[in-house]
Amino acid sequence: MRTKLLPRLALPHHPTTNPAPISRQQRLAALRRLLDDEQIPLLTRTAAVIVLLYAQPLTRILRLTIDDVLHHDGQVSLRLGDPPTPVPEPFATLLLDHLGQRLNLTTATNQNSRRLFPGRRGGQPMTTDAIEQRLRTHQIVTLNSRAAALRHLVLQAPAPVIARMLGYTDQQTRRIATAAGSPWSRYAPGDDHSRDDHELHHSQIGDS
Asked: Which residues fall in a compositionally biased region of kind Basic and acidic residues (predicted)?
């Protein structure tokens, strides 16, 4: 460059910090569209709502099996952590509909697949690239949507409760809670009120 033999170059930059979350209004609008727009494929709607409601990364979503969808006494739950997370209506109906209409089950090697999102290869789930492309086609950016969902959830219940139910570490949810100004910042996992907090989360996780 000093000798003027090399032109100025623009190097691509990939940020390493957490992506900026979409706004609460954008998140709620996306959820309403996914629940109401039947022109969007059912598989895409189901995966996108799991991202927007439960802040799940695609790699974890693709590990889910039909055994992780629990339906008992009219209550639907999704096993993302311990205990399973309640699934509110109308998403519960959407999830059960997807369960009965999973794709890629017609080949002899894959017809008995227990994957919630089966891929084309026997016993394998869809690839992250395939499902991410589906979401992007319908304006769902996974990282930004997950960030918004997790930020909302840690404002509704203590970070350790969110971590256990959604399969995150305490450190991950505490960091988000601190950045979001969570009112639960003084909560400790061994608190005598942990059961009350847990029940609070059960009641509020569907308020999205």
From this structure: 189-208
Domain 24-207: state its class.
mainly alpha
Task: Summarize pLDDT for 71-93 with one digit per residue, the tens.
Answer: 999 899 999 999 999 999 999 99
User: What does the H/E/C string look like for the chain?
Assistant: CCCCCCCCCCCCCCCCCCCCCCCHHHHHHHHHHHHHCCCCCHHHHHHHHHHHHHCCCHHHHCCCEHHHEEEECCEEEECCCCCCEECCCCHHHHHHHHHHCCCCCCCCCCCCCCECCECCCCCCECCHHHHHHHHHHCCCCHHHHHHHHHHHHHHHCCHHHHHHHHCCCHHHHHHHHHHHCCCCCCCCCCCCCHHHHHHHHHHHHHHC
Q: pTM for the full model?
A: 0.79
